[in-house]
User: What shape does this take?
Amino acid sequence: MLAATVVVASAATTPIYLDESRPIEERVDDLLPRLTLDEKLAIIHAQSKFSSAGVARLGIPTFWTDDGPHGVRPDVLWDEWEQAGATNDSCVAFPALTCLAATWHPELAHRYGVALGEEARYRGKDMILGPGVNIYRTPLNGRNFEYMGEDPCLASLMVVPYVRGLQSLGVSACIKHYALNNNEHERHTTNVVVDDRALHEIYLPAFKAAVQQGGAWAIMGAYNLYNNEHLCHNRVMLNDILKRDWQFDGVVVSDWGGAHDTWQAINNGLDMEFGTWTDGLSEGARNAYDNYHLALPYKKLLLEGKVPMATLDEKVRRVLRLMMRTTLATRPRGSMCSQEHYQTARDVAAEGIVLLKNDKNLLPIDPARHRRVLVVGENAIKMMTVGGGSSSLKAQHEILPLDGLRQRLEADGVTVDYARGYVGDPTGEYNGVTTGQSLKDDRPAAVLLAEAVEKARQADVVIFIGGLNKAAFQDSEGDDHKSYGLPYNQDQLIEALARANKNLVVVNISGNAVAMPWRGQVPAIVQGWFLGSEAGTSLARVLVGDDNPSGKLPFSWYERLEDCGAHSVGDYPGTRRADENIWDEHYREGIYVGYRWLDKNKLKPAFAFGHGLSYTTFALSNAHLTGNTATVTVTNTGRRAGSEVVQLYITDVKSSVDRPAKELKAFKKVHLQPGESQVLTFDITRDMLSYYDSNSGQWTAEPGDFIVRLGTASDRLPINLKFKLQ
Ligand code: GLC
Assistant: This one.
């Protein structure tokens, strides 16, 4: 009889909030009244650098967040940015999100999210602080490498599968930085002034897609201001647009130190406060978590009856809902540093690397013809997984470009020599994680250049690997590039190499476009991105032709900085107010960002949005419109397998408002064997035809003539299918 009694008893004591067979809302309703006021306040703000409290007496675990979008950051000390010095938290560093966007391959984004989620689960993290989807408005932005390019459609279609993949592991995404954080200079004090159409047509769509199609469980407020309110507690952006209009049921997390005002933090939509600098804006160990805006100051106002308990309960509901989805859910265990994860990293890199130019088919390197290869440049030997700000990682390994090329080419008996060419940033440390590299080289620049040029004369082919790095004022959080040109006199070196050897390949490692004054003298140019743990392997595979490149640019590559709207009229980086430390940055270019700006002003980029070559060729044919469906056949007309991205843009021939000449509205990537064809269909929806009407606040598709434009780059759209919207 005892056994039966015990069974009955245990079934009766499982509280509803822990019963996963119940709907989440029912579990939240059961748990909320069980919490004391102090417990409610404890779970809506940080208790350490990256965690917030659970409720121990009810068996609710601590909630752990961690950076970042490209891999799981090493554990830090309880209340410090410094890494804790653990020896079991080295991770896989996946390619940066600009590279992922350049794959134009949503299924890969899902695989990326799953792999990152598995690493996060294994490391006991309940929320990854990413992905970032801030639009690439200026090529100077230090953090563009963490984001998905200039176009809202591309960023939307790539972020949704990433979020779904990540959250399928029971790890919350935290979409950032919501919103209008499009450059780093004065990021805490910049008040962005932007018209409603640009806000809704350009800067918000990827966040909206992540929330509504991706089902994101959390979103991170940005540091900057909009309507003179910080985005971490911004009434219009959080209460009105995110929670009312988009019906977001998740949690708004502050950026670390992004909350500045108790009253606004309470009333303007903030749900979890992290990183606040209490104690007179001091950082670090003196953070007194009880002094957070959503801690004792909040409790005081509640007890004085100055703010309603209902507002607190709404925040707590959202946090409890997040817990039901993560710490209180049965979840996969995850895995770390598995071969599957490394393969995902290699696949993203292989499909994200962009072949920008390839005159005389210099690439791929042919071991039979190219017996002596010279590699030049610091980025061939410099680790890029350490540094750059919060996305910095402690990678289990990082295969460098030179090592990857040597490993691949010497297997075919090719001699691979190296010359430094220039010295850029020989350091390599971030929050206590060091690369262990000694890149110091005191030789004068002229000596380095002369050595590279002399060796170039002897080589069959020269591969220059340079670009930017993760040092301050380069591709790094916290500030922007000082200029559009390459640093460290690389232009002079590239021009000298081009004179010394006509078989020159330039590989640019960066998350941004840079000026290329030598472009006409260089037969082959590759955009190499920050590729993570498998950088060298992936780059070598593409340069030698084991992988056929299929990446397409996720942003326009301006010839000159003044060809970019943000720098032509757009007021970057804004103007400091006379009487306070606030910068007003007017997005005067409005909706005309990237190719939209170039089209409007009839400017030609060095390389267009959506551009990318292949080692094979493709043709489009049999395009037609049947009803709302556009159909086109794509054929691999070359001699080797490869992938192509067919892109669909829409032109509104005549509208009552000014609209861009064309806008990306869909794309499909196909992999084809030589001679193989595939028929692609695209459903044309009203949404694709609509613009945001600032007066009505609605999306509107005006009757009239439209054109569906199909091609393989924004400047290569040979097919135009006209139709009339009734
Ligand atoms: C940083 C970044 C944010 C990051 C957070 C925690 O300042 O802006 O992207 O997730 O703080 O490191």
